[in-house]
Amino acid sequence: MSKVILGRKVAMTQIFDENVLIPITIVEAGPCVIVERKVKKKNGYNAIQLGFLEVKENRVNKPESGHFRKSEVRPQKYLREIRVKDIGNLKIRDEIRVDVFKQGDLVDVVGISKGKGFAGVVKRYGFKGGPASHGAGGWRRRPGSIGASADPSRVFKGKKMPGKMGAERKT
User: Which helix (H) or strand (E) holds 53?
Assistant: First the structure.
């Protein structure tokens, strides 16, 4: 079975290693509880549903509350389904703790980046922008030209333009 655990970012700090500053992210990882098992015979694929961070009963909606009651598990704030090749001897209500990992193990950390909302090209892509004075005529933070005129009569796909920034899945 693959080693999987849910966690959340708690804080950032830093350490010095041979006079080099290294930024460190502190993650609260586990314990996670198995809320549901999905097997190939019944569901068409193997997966486990993990719950992380216990919450009060009134913090989950009625369908989720019924789901947790059916599994006889206390309500969890985060609920994620992870596909696995082999479920092995994992059972509902089993706890997965951080000790499944050993020192030196390589891990893939996946999370959602901070949402920045609608951003212009200066913030989103680091464009320099135009001059602030000397008759610039008000294009200080604008992108400039976005393409030619009659030929090709369109803006090419992938052109860096203002838009929503952040809130993306990052590995």
Answer: strand 47-54
**Structure-token pair, residue 33:** 């509880």
**pTM of the predicted model, to two decimals?**
0.72
Asked whether residue 1 is domain-assigned, the answer is no
Per-residue pLDDT of the chain (171 residues; tens, 9 = 90+): 578 899 999 999 999 999 999 999 999 998 999 999 999 999 999 999 999 999 999 999 999 999 999 999 999 999 999 998 888 888 999 999 998 889 998 888 888 999 999 999 999 999 998 888 888 787 888 888 899 989 999 999 999 999 999 999 998
Residues 74 and 141 in one domain: no
Residues 99 and 28: their CA atoms lie apart, in Å, by 13
Q: Which amino acid is at 89?
A: N
Token pair for 159: 């052109």
The CATH number of the domain where 75 resides is what? 3.30.160.810
Q: Residue 75 is part of which domain span?
A: 7-102
How many CB atoms within 10 Å of residue 155?
11
- 140 within some domain: yes
| 90 and 143 fall within a common domain | no
- SS3 call for 47: strand
Three-state DSSP class for residue 96:
strand
Same domain for 120 and 147, yes or no, is yes
